[in-house]
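Purpose: get a first structural picture of the assembly so the mutagenesis plan has something to point at.
Setup: two entries, given in the order below. No constraints added.
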Amino acid sequence: MAVYKKTYRPYEGALTARWSRLLVIPRYAFEDLHRRKFLTTFFFASFLYPLVCAIIIYVQHNASALSLIGAQGAQHLISINVVFFLSLLGWQSMMALFLAAFVGPGQVSPDLANNALALYLARPFSRTEYVLGKMSVLLILLSLMTWVPGLLLFGLESYLEGWSWAVDHARIASGLFFGAWIWILLLALLALALSAWVKWRAAAGTLMFGVFFVASAFGAVINGIERTNWGHLFNISYLVGSVWVWLFEGGQPTTNGAIFFRAPRGETLPLWTSWVGLAALALVCFFMLARKIRGAEVIR
Amino acid sequence: MNLWRRQLGAVLRLEWRKTFFSKRGWWIYLLALGPVAITALHWLFEMGRSSSGHSLGDDSVIYAGMFHFFFLRGAIFFGCVGIFSSLFRAEMQERTLHYYYLTPLRREMLVAGKYLAGLAMAVVLFAGSAALSFLLIGRHFGAEYSNYIWHGPGLSQLGWYTLTAALAAVGYGAVFLMCGLLFRNPFIPAAVVYVWEALNPFLPGLLKKISVIFYLNNLCPVEVPLPPPLNLLVVETDPTPVWLAIPGLLAVSLLLLVYTAYSARQGEISYGE
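Result (structure tokens, whole complex):
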């Protein structure tokens, strides 16, 4: 056939189902992540703490194991309660921050830096699907690190302690699930937003780390200088911690949050301010993403 | 020697402009401006009140806390990560480093020029921010604060805080310039250094000394204890005398710079990797 006769013909094969198109992105992303040895090692190392927790739960319910190691009174040493699960969630969430800082910035920035976004959006693939696809990489990884082991440990404790324990402590399970999701969504949004605005991957990672630590230090400075507690609104760990306490214990808390995510007693703000703070941060991230994730860019 | 000086000057002039007016550095300006804005607001709010609920001593302690926990552990650290690690790495990203490497310029001069340009920015921003914040935090006390500065310990404290901020930029700058040249992703070593520096109060005496923050803490005029229950874990170590801390920090920074220069001399560009 002569070249001039080769005109445009649209693709006529079968299309991927609309709902599953966004899963193409995580499929390739996981392949890429799997090749990075440091990340794989870090991801598996992050399960060390839940493993230790599982051993503690098992040993606590196994009298022969306790007598074998000569620690018959050990079950009184560590209680499997709200503090136990909050500590697990706090530690795993900090690990999740590190992982998100490593993985997240590499999601969007290469597409923007190489002007490749148009290649996605030229296909029957919306901006929302693109963002959800990129976000799902983080959502899956961070879920596996936070609420999945949390609920498995809750299940183990329920199995060993009995059904009545599970019913009495159902709020812990819901707190683990919803608390982890709040943190995961926030991390994923922050990672993608910074990735979209800071094209250099390493800088975006550092910035994400910085937003968490420097903003809390900035909040502490405001509290110190202005003799107020409102500086906590800049402290992401405080905002998340106070919401977690409510999710785990409701209106009468006995703890002040999880490790790394504390809401110090006597310095608390009304709970709604924490929700508003988190929502505001999420909205800013949405705005940043909406500004940058576009098929065409007008350069003036 | 004259040629080296001219080359150094040329690199410094080029890098100075790039570092100071880089759009990607907007967040570093925010880091430096944050404490100045808060202390200025404090001054304005307290001026509007009939009586202040705190003393000048309280403000001095608050400033010391801000300097320890915000400037040293936050703003200067992350600011230096941003400024110094991008001096080489950003040029690799933009594929412009070979323009420097093609010029008849010693790599050591290039490293020194870039370092001095980054240092100038870090010192101007962070030492300036620390000094301005110090001057503003007690301004609402009026004549009493002027008296504290000119006839009390204020001027000496201001000097030490400014010097400590500048030395922090020198130390962290050398560390992150090296990271930017040696690591493709300088964030990983930066995270490791951050954790190491954060753990410093809890480390045994010998390990404490392998850090920047240990020497900087000794230079601060007002000591800030860690809040409970963390204070129970602190390992007490004899502070390093000032005459040893400053030259020690400068010597370690110089050593890192020499190593960076040596690495740059051996380095080859491969933008594809």
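The longest strand of chain A covers residues 257-258.
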